[in-house]
């Protein structure tokens, strides 16, 4: 039984890892297609039908381009930077529940790699580690402009992690648990989605997610028109590809988190009234979850081609002077509502 459990988890890990990479890969095509649509032009359309093979061509280009390591770079840390960035991006999805349980030959298989009781803390710990990949890459390049880009990226990430954490505290006051599985399970039924009780917390979390993923209007650490490439200016070939892949995986995981924490995760309206078997309900739940995720990914891309980027002082002012005070006010408001509810309506 123990061996079967380990095998199930290994298969699930491989599936989640593969899906993350494929979605990250085709997010590059989707972004260019959406940009083309919004700018009234064609996106990539030469490689395969409608450009469907373009991500494979881009990946092949990264693999076969010349590998360059600057003469004055710290070689081991230069390699460790993008490696750490992609690893932290991939393992952050380990606690996300992708669906309910599947019944296969009498075994109940949970579609979650690790249902730990501190899943939210695990995600924040992994996200915090991702900053080290950026800082190591910028510092080990032995380029002052890369270092400046890394400092900007680390400052931005650390600043917006505070607002994101405070927004989650208010949510935890409502859910009374740190387990991702329990948070999603509590949202069974459309009216029980956390977005209805924490709309301000969601807006703060979403804004901070844009900053954590270095997406427009928070792409100052690497804005090509101003900084050439920021912290990864000296990178080429697949090491540059790993940095770019990690950002798209982070966007995918951030979308999954927002869907799981605030929009019911795999829950969808009337799922318990369909009269279907548990396996079919689980499959439909996974499909519903990914529809929500793709909706958020589209929103990430839509914002990129709609809003201009902030100046750096505007970015820091928004994080420290607006989002953090709003998140603290949201915690106080949530506490007051909870006390009133428990006192007069329990």
From TrEMBL:
Any one GO BP annotation for this protein: aerobic respiration
Coiled coil feature spans: none
Catalyses which reaction(s): a quinone + NADH + 5 H(+)(in) = a quinol + NAD(+) + 4 H(+)(out)
One GO MF term: NADH dehydrogenase activity
Predominant location: membrane
Protein topology in the membrane: Multi-pass membrane protein
Annotated family: Belongs to the complex I subunit 1 family.
Subunit structure: NDH-1 is composed of 14 different subunits. Subunits NuoA, H, J, K, L, M, N constitute the membrane sector of the complex.
PANTHER family: NADH DEHYDROGENASE SUBUNIT 1 (PTHR11432), NADH-UBIQUINONE OXIDOREDUCTASE CHAIN 1 (PTHR11432:SF3)
Function of the protein: NDH-1 shuttles electrons from NADH, via FMN and iron-sulfur (Fe-S) centers, to quinones in the respiratory chain. The immediate electron acceptor for the enzyme in this species is believed to be ubiquinone. Couples the redox reaction to proton translocation (for every two electrons transferred, four hydrogen ions are translocated across the cytoplasmic membrane), and thus conserves the redox energy in a proton gradient. This subunit may bind ubiquinone.
Protein name, UniProt field: NADH-quinone oxidoreductase subunit H
Organism in which the protein naturally occurs: Sphingobacterium deserti
């Amino acid at each position: 039984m123990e061996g079967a459990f380990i095998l199930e988890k290994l298969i699930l890990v491989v599936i989640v890892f593969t899906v993350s990479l494929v979605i990250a890969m085709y997010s590059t095509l989707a972004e260019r297609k959406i940009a083309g649509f919004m700018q009234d032009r064609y996106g990539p359309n030469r490689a395969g039908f409608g450009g469907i093979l373009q991500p494979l061509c881009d990946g092949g280009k990264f693999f076969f381009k010349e590998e360059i390591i600057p003469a004055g770079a710290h070689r081991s840390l230069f390699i460790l930077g993008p490696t750490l960035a992609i690893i932290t991006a991939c393992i952050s999805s380990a606690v996300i529940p992708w669906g309910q349980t599947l019944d296969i030959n009498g075994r109940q298989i949970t579609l979650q790699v690790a249902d730990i009781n501190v899943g939210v803390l695990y995600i924040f710990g992994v996200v915090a580690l991702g900053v080290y990949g950026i800082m190591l890459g910028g510092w080990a390049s032995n380029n002052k402009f890369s270092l400046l880009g890394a400092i900007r990226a680390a400052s931005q990430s650390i600043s917006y992690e505070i607002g994101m954490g405070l927004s989650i505290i208010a949510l935890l006051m409502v859910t009374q648990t740190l387990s991702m599985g329990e948070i999603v399970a509590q949202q069974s039924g459309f009216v029980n989605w956390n977005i209805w009780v924490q709309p301000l917390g969601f807006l703060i979390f979403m804004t901070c997610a844009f900053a954590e993923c270095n997406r427009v209007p928070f792409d100052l650490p690497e804005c090509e028109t101003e900084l050439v490439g920021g912290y990864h200016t000296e990178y080429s070939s697949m090491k540059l590809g790993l940095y770019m892949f990690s950002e798209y995986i982070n966007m995918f995981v951030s979308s999954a988190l927002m869907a799981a924490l605030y929009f019911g995760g795999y829950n969808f309206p009337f799922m318990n009234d369909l009269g279907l078997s548990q396996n079919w309900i689980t499959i439909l739940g996974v499909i519903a979850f990914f529809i929500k995720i793709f909706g958020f990914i589209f929103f990430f891309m839509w914002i990129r081609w709609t809003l201009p980027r902030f100046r750096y002082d505007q970015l820091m002012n928004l994080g420290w002077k607006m989002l953090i005070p709003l998140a603290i006010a949201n915690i106080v408001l949530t506490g007051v509502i909870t006390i009133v509810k428990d006192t007069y309506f329990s």
